[in-house]
Amino acid sequence: MKIPSCIHRERRLRRQASLWAVRLEAGALTPVEQRRLEHWLARDARHGPALADAEMTWALAGACRDAPSLAQPAPRARRSPWRACAAAWRRAYPMAPRRRAFALACAALVVAGTINGPDLIEPWLADYRNDAGEIRSLALPDGSRVLLGSNSALDVEYDASTRRVRLLRGEAVFSPAPTGAAEPRRFVVESAGASMTALGTRYAVRRQDAGHGWVGVLQHRVALLMDRPPTAGIAHTTLTAGDSATFSHAAGIARSPVAPARGAAWADGYLIFDGEPLQQVLRRIGDFRRGQLILANRAAAHRPVHALFHLDNLDGALATLCSELRLARLRLPGVTVLY
Q1: What pLDDT shows up at residue 29?
Q2: Across the strands, what pairs with 128?
Q3: If you write DSSP's letter for every residue of 265-327 in order, what string do you get?
């Protein structure tokens, strides 16, 4: 049975509120996080009450965790601190809100157990987020178009002077609405410690991790600027159609040998490899399919691959690789091993 979209929206609202509650409990927000929280609260009147609900749930969960053992005068009189906490829960929440609060607490506790830093939690708070294997076309408020790639997350932060989007995970192809008299604000993509300002353009951005990224210009020009001076290399440049570049905190901006059309071929439904080592090819294929890909044959890791694979037949692509490179394949639930 198909779940109504209103239920999906409600679940997403609860999840975002839970994650913000966890982040606030973890300590003071950075200036960027504070700005994002203010933006999230202002975007919908339901967000404030949902956050308050989540914070109350989180506080109650903490009180349950820290509840002291009560006196135990006799076995029959023994009273569990969790039972006392449950009674407090029932007093604090009527039945229906209690179910909602319990769901929020579960989500918050699961997230709290897995968070190692803001880089893990931010994609879950994004305005748009795709699962592995999902590619989606988006229309932004100003008419700009975005093709959001597999396992990717995007935040939109427009203000009076800038149309700012933040690529928090994965990759996307951006087609900004042109700047002019009707739309004077510049269009900027921020990701992996750099900002990319559109100069009447269409361009692809890939975020490899918090400090490494790639950009390829498909049309017109893009101004690329590092957020802070890199350890080496240049900190800003302008790329024209056909140019691509990598950027990182350590190496700065460097020209990339990957043509923009090849780097963004996923937008047309396929992946192109021109001599990349097998281990890199498998990582790229893994970006677009569910489950883990493991290469157990270390001797094959650096074998070059020249191929074009369609996204709708990646299992066939793996079969082809195994045949060409004389590898065996073992498929398990959630895992595929090449050896």
Answers
A1: 79
A2: 154
A3: GGGGTEEEEEEEEHHHHHHHHHTTSSSEEEE--GGGTT-EEEEEEEGGGHHHHHHHHHHHHT-
What digits encode the pLDDT tens for the residues 141-179? 999 999 999 999 999 999 999 999 999 999 999 999 999
pLDDT of residue 17: 78
C-alpha distances out from residue 190 to 52, 196, 198, Å: 30, 6, 11
Query: How far apart are the C-alpha atoms of 14 and 97, rounded to whole Å?
Result: 12
* Burial call 116-129: b when 16+ CB within 10 Å, e when fewer: eebeebbbbbbbbb
pLDDT tens figures, 86-128? 455 455 545 444 454 445 445 544 444 444 445 556 676 788 9
Indicate if the pLDDT at residue 313 is higher than 80.
yes
For β-strands 162-175 and 212-226, DSSP reports them as unpaired
Structure tokens at 186: 């510049």
What is the distance between the alpha carbons of residues 246 and 233, in angstroms, rounded to a whole number? 11
Length of the chain: 339
Q: Please write the tens of the pLDDT for every residue from 55-80.
A: 776 666 555 545 554 344 444 444 44
* Percent of the chain whose predicted confidence (pLDDT) is above 90: 58
pLDDT at 174: 98
Distant-in-sequence contacts of 252-255, Cβ < 8 A, 24+ apart: 252/226, 253/194, 253/224, 253/226
163 to 73, 144, 177, 187, 197: CA distances (angstroms): 66, 10, 10, 5, 10
CA dihedral 121, 125, 131, 135 (to 10 degrees): -130
Tell me the backbone φ, ψ of residue 4, rounded to 5 degrees: -60, 150
CA atoms within 13 A of residue 182's CA, in its CB half-sphere: 4
Position 303: which residue type? R
* Letter string b/e over residues 182-211, b meaning 16 or more CB atoms within 10 A of that residue's CB: eeeeebbbbbbbbbbbbbebbbbbbbbeeb
